[in-house]
Write a structure and sequence with these properties.
Bound molecules: flavin-adenine dinucleotide
Number of helices: 17
CATH superfamily of one domain: Succinate dehydrogenase/fumarate reductase flavoprotein, catalytic domain
Shape: elongated
CATH topology of one domain: Flavocytochrome C3, Chain A, domain 1
């Protein structure tokens, strides 16, 4: 897959570069380009990171005629994109017309949903640009890269978003949709990269941006096999290294929810996604945007990930034994609330259900009951991963919440469920009375990455803290921020963002 280009010249120049960087005392600070210093490798467009964003940026830049080199820190291309399901959101595509009842959906509606979900914190121009570009990317992936779109579903509701602008927009391709399906997307685009002559250096980590005396980004310092080298990029550097997912220190500074998840949840991003591009950009004065939220969901139940799957009868309580959120909303919406309650009350939250839940017709009919029968649930109680109480008071004691509150909450749930409604939080599915014996599952965030990155404009150019373009520096995908709000707005948003910002950055850099 990889081609170790210019390796000889790379290694030849490396020792000199180490010496000069150290001698200048610039370790830890931006590196100014100097005419006297030799470059080890030269290209026109340099892409840092070979995940979804990186391969799209490379394909687009090479398609526009630029000489393109990609640096990949890992020994494998694909990054966290490989691990993804590969699903992507877009509105108004021919596939949406073919596979769904939504015949008149538009990118404007799509942008309206994302902006509403952004809660006033997104850059609306970026969001509109993404929504408008999405249908073309779906066609590009099919027509140029050979992706075969096979179905579409929707994301679950959000209490304050009008039903009229919601639609099924999550595009699924052949053999995609489940964890690991993202490999197909990466490989399809990478094949196009190879046809267009893109070169790659594997196991090569970009560590610093190099600017000339006018502030133009002209290359990077990189490390391969423990040796430093200088790589020149005459048309631009595109940062595609994702967000601060696996970087505890940066997460603490920039994304409290990510920081919490690193200690209390399960982060599924690749270990090489340590926010390098964000750090490198910040080092030369780049602004950041969109930090705060995460792509969190319940890995045990998958609740809220697919609008075709109802939640089974259950409700979530905090340390006070009380509900605090609508549980069948899109996953990152209710997981943000779970995070906030866990921090505010300094303790876990629990999903409460009963024997009736695991035998209910809705759960069984959905085929997606996390505990399909009492035996399975009891086995987990044995294993210590589930709590059980013959009565609700017993369960309250087992999980350490006030019994009177939990009983009150159960009674309220049951009386509302008799009427088939949830006036408390507007839940839509799984509203059935819950009877014991009772179970409690401690919520644990499965984290698919942090939100937030370098601030960009609609050309994917990186902006400094004064809003000025940093010449020849671009960022895309999850390395860029401001195009997603304080929680993840549903499956397929991140990946369409990798295609969009990657392609935009590639086109803009190639045009320099
Ligand atoms: C299990 C899982 C399932 C998911 N499912 C979906 C889904 O179906 N749909 C969806 O929209 N989103 C999904 N997501 C989220 C989505 O996959 C990610 O947000 C997205 O793939 C990130 O893409 P990226 O290009 O920004 O980063 P990545 O794909 O992670 O690529 C970053 C690359 O940069 C490299 N790198 C890092 N630092 C350096 C450096 N200094 N020098 C050189 N290279 C470097 C890394 O090694 C990596 O290869 C999922 C995520 C996970 C973990």
């Amino acid at each position: 897959m990889s081609k170790d280009i210019s390796r000889r010249s790379f290694l030849k120049g490396a020792a000199a570069s180490v010496a000069s960087v150290a001698a200048m005392g610039l370790v830890g600070a931006p590196v100014l380009a100097s005419a006297e210093e030799a470059w080890d490798v030269e290209t026109e467009v340099l892409v840092v990171g070979a995940g979804g964003t990186g391969v799209c940026a490379a394909a687009e830049a090479a398609g526009a005629g630029a000489k393109v080199l990609v640096l990949e820190k890992a020994g494998l291309i694909g990054g966290s994109t490989n691990l993804s399901g590969g699903v992507m959101q877009a509105a108004g595509t021919k596939y949406q017309k073919e596979f769904t009842k939504y015949q008149d959906d538009t990118p404007e509606n799509h942008a309206a949903v994302w902006i509403k979900e952004g809660e006033g914190l997104v850059d609306e121009e970026l969001v509109k640009d993404l929504a408008n570009g999405a249908p073309d990317h779906i066609d590009w992936l099919a027509d140029t890269c050979g992706i075969k779109w096979t179905s579409i579903y929707g994301h679950c509701h959000i209490p304050y978003v009008e039903d009229e602008i919601m639609a099924d927009r999550i595009h699924v391709y052949e053999n995609g949709g489940a964890s690991g399906g993202g490999v197909i997307y990466v490989q399809a685009v990478w094949k196009v990269c190879q046809e267009r002559g893109v070169e790659i250096l594997m196991n090569t980590e970009a560590t610093k941006l190099i600017q000339d005396e006018n502030g133009v980004v002209v290359g990077v310092v990189a490390v391969q096999d423990g040796k430093e080298c200088r790589i020149k990029a005459t048309k631009g550097v595109i940062l595609c290294t994702a967000s601060v997912d696996q970087n505890r220190e940066l997460a603490k500074r920039l994304n409290p929810q990510m920081y919490y998840d690193l200690d209390n949840g399960v982060c599924l991003s690749v270990s090489t996604d340590t926010g390098d591009g964000i750090r490198m950009g910040m080092e030369i004065g780049a602004d950041v945007a969109g930090f705060g939220g995460c792509i969190d969901f319940c890995g045990k139940t998958g609740f809220g990930t697919d609008n075709r799957t109802p939640n089974f009868p259950s409700f979530i309580v905090n340390q006070q034994g009380l509900r605090f959120v609508c549980e069948d909303t899109t996953y990152a919406y209710h997981y943000r609330a779970i995070y906030q309650q866990s921090v505010a009350l300094d303790g876990h939250t629990y999903m409460i259900f009963g024997t009736s839940s695991v035998t209910s017709s809705e759960a069984v009919a959905s085929g997606y009951a996390p505990w399909p029968d009492v035996e399975t649930a009891d086995a987990e109680v044995e294993a210590g991963t589930l709590f059980k109480g013959e009565t609700i008071e017993e369960l309250a004691e087992a999980i350490g919440v006030p019994a009177a509150n939990l009983k009150l909450q159960l009674d309220l749930w049951n009386s509302n469920a008799e009427a088939g409604e949830d006036p408390q939080f507007g839940r839509k599915t799984g509203i059935e009375p819950i009877t014991g014996p009772f179970y409690a599952y401690q919520n644990v965030a499965y984290n698919l990455g942090a939100l937030g990155g370098l601030r960009i404009n609609t050309n994917a150019e990186v902006l400094d803290v004064n809003g000025n373009v940093i010449p020849h520096l671009y960022a895309g995908g999850l390395n860029a921020g401001g195009w997603i709000g304080p929680y993840y707005p549903g499956s397929g948003t991140a990946l369409i963002g990798t295609v969009h910002w990657g392609r935009k950055a590639g086109a803009a850099a190639a045009a320099n």
